[in-house]
Amino acid sequence: MDFFPIFMRIRDRSCLVVGGGVVAARKIDLLRKAGGRVTVVSPELCLELTALQSRGEIEHVERGFREDDIHGRVLVVAATDDQEVNRRVSQCGQQHGIAVNVVDQPDLCSFITPAMVDRSPLQIAISTGGTSPVLARLLRARIESLVPASYGRLATLVEGFRERAKRCIPNTELRRRFWERVLEGPVMELFLSGRERAAGETLDKALDAGVDARDTGGEVFLVGAGPGDPDLLTFRALRLMQRADVVVYDNLVSPAILELVRRDAERIYAGKKRNHHTLPQGDINDLLIRLAQEGKRVLRLKGGDPFIFGRGGEEVDRLMQHGIPFQLVPGITAAAGCASFAGIPLTHRDHAQALVFATGHLQDGTIDLNWDMLAQPHQTVVFYMGLSGLPIICREMAAHGLPASTPAALVEQGTTQNQRVLVGTLETLPDIVKGEEVQPPTLIIVGSVVALQQRLQWFRPDAPPTRGSLFASCTTPETRGATGTAEQAG
Ligand code: SAH
């Protein structure tokens, strides 16, 4: 993070703008909206600013910038087309510890202004750190269309009840839940449908009723996070991720996904790497139960799908034994994610009429599987956890009846920007993989569908390959006339 995001109170505080053109006018507009008292230093003013000045809404100092102009200001904006003046304003501001912004010159700025969706008092600020104002603008447009204009009025309504809520529900945690429940439920529905008074009355009643019993106990959200790409999360996963008090995550959860968990949530790594368990499964179960019994909302975040080689069944079993409420959210399992992103249609009807998910996990140097059942024609087999057992898998599949020329693929870090697909046959794949620096997680796909990959591959991650893992284990409706502003590097 290159910039620290803050919202600054400038009401009735003195702000200096150096420059009197239209660019300065845009900034002045914003400063005045936030209640700032604006002084403009410039030999000339554009028409818009002249009008403001004649109405006494800004102060005008009719000359060039002098260093002592900045004294007593909370912030300074330089918006002249003279580089030298801009530079002097920047230096002077920085020397005196006054926040300074130079329009379109990020290197001279100590603060930049974000693109903004303004539903005052609700404000959404977007910044790309000055790298791409256009991207920020595009995002802003999307958010504008997602956040109804009435959200601002909703925030005002909530504000009116805050003090009372504090008195009625002194416990911060319970109060937060109360607000979440209220805002996710009927109050929100009424408000968005335009029945603002009814929404207020419902909120009033809800406060009278206080906190209901459901809010006092903890809960566990057992959530599948998919194979790596955050875009492959489900809506429900994302919603629960935003509501968690604590997250217990495993090594397959990528940092990009963890980023989407509520910022204040405590993070507990329970990752399991091959051969050394950071936390044994029993301890994880106990941890989930303890945290829930403490009244927390516990997010158990797992790679892929919790019920596919994810030990979700054991966790659910224990939660039920202890009477702990839970929600279970399926995720895109690695086989589905990797196959799609590799261009391998697992059950292409010309090739396979059955699909088997198997574990290639080694126990005592061997893999205990029913090879006769796996080595069948017209069938695709996907091996999870099979990297170290790859030579055994290929050997056994051939020994039990599949031709050695059967196509086989290894998908490395599927769906992520680091995805690679190594394709060979049962005979050649182990050597191909040996020659590469393969990083977990990897998935092995065996069957004639793999031959289609050459034609159907479509996903070409174009990020420069970072030869490490992106996963934790491996190193770890409308706008209704509301306004917004664009991010500017200055
Ligand atoms: N519950 C998970 C699987 C957990 S077992 C799911 O449904 O996907 C862990 C194994 O999943 C890894 O050893 C690897 O074989 C596979 N895997 C998970 N994510 C993967 C990815 N992005 N690319 C390749 N394989 C992956």
TrEMBL record:
NAD(+) binds at residues 22-23, 43-44. The keyword tRNA processing does not apply. Its EC number is 2.1.1.107, 1.3.1.76, 4.99.1.4. Residues 218-490 are annotated as: Uroporphyrinogen-III C-methyltransferase. InterPro entries: 4pyrrol_Mease, 4pyrrol_Methylase_sf, 4pyrrole_Mease_sub1, 4pyrrole_Mease_sub2, CobA/CysG_C, NAD(P)-bd_dom_sf, Siro_Cobalamin_biosynth, Sirohaem_synt_dimer_dom_sf. Residues 220-429 form the Tetrapyrrole methylase domain. GO terms for molecular function: NAD binding; precorrin-2 dehydrogenase activity; sirohydrochlorin ferrochelatase activity; uroporphyrin-III C-methyltransferase activity. The active site is at 250 (proton acceptor), 272 (proton donor). SUPFAM superfamilies: NAD(P)-binding Rossmann-fold domains (SSF51735), Siroheme synthase middle domains-like (SSF75615), Tetrapyrrole methylase (SSF53790). Keywords: Cobalamin biosynthesis, Lyase, Methyltransferase, Multifunctional enzyme, NAD, Oxidoreductase, Porphyrin biosynthesis, S-adenosyl-L-methionine, Transferase. It catalyses: uroporphyrinogen III + 2 S-adenosyl-L-methionine = precorrin-2 + 2 S-adenosyl-L-homocysteine + H(+); siroheme + 2 H(+) = sirohydrochlorin + Fe(2+); precorrin-2 + NAD(+) = sirohydrochlorin + NADH + 2 H(+). GO terms for biological process: cobalamin biosynthetic process; methylation; siroheme biosynthetic process. Residues 1-203 are annotated as: Precorrin-2 dehydrogenase / sirohydrochlorin ferrochelatase. Residues 150-207 form the Sirohaem synthase dimerisation domain. Gene3D superfamilies: Cobalt-precorrin-4 Transmethylase, Domain 1, Methyltransferase, Cobalt-precorrin-4 Transmethylase, Domain 2, NAD(P)-binding Rossmann-like Domain, Sirohaem synthase, dimerisation domain, Siroheme synthase, domain 2. S-adenosyl-L-methionine binds at residues 227, 303-305, 308, 333-334, 385, 414. It holds the Pfam family TP_methylase. The keyword Cell division does not apply. Pathway: Cofactor biosynthesis; adenosylcobalamin biosynthesis; precorrin-2 from uroporphyrinogen III: step 1/1; Porphyrin-containing compound metabolism; siroheme biosynthesis; siroheme from sirohydrochlorin: step 1/1; Cofactor biosynthesis; adenosylcobalamin biosynthesis; sirohydrochlorin from precorrin-2: step 1/1; Porphyrin-containing compound metabolism; siroheme biosynthesis; precorrin-2 from uroporphyrinogen III: step 1/1. In the N-terminal section; belongs to the precorrin-2 dehydrogenase / sirohydrochlorin ferrochelatase family. In the C-terminal section; belongs to the precorrin methyltransferase family. PANTHER family: SIROHEME SYNTHASE, SIROHEME SYNTHASE-RELATED. Then it catalyzes the NAD-dependent ring dehydrogenation of precorrin-2 to yield sirohydrochlorin. Finally, it catalyzes the ferrochelation of sirohydrochlorin to yield siroheme. This is Siroheme synthase. It comes from Thioalkalivibrio halophilus.
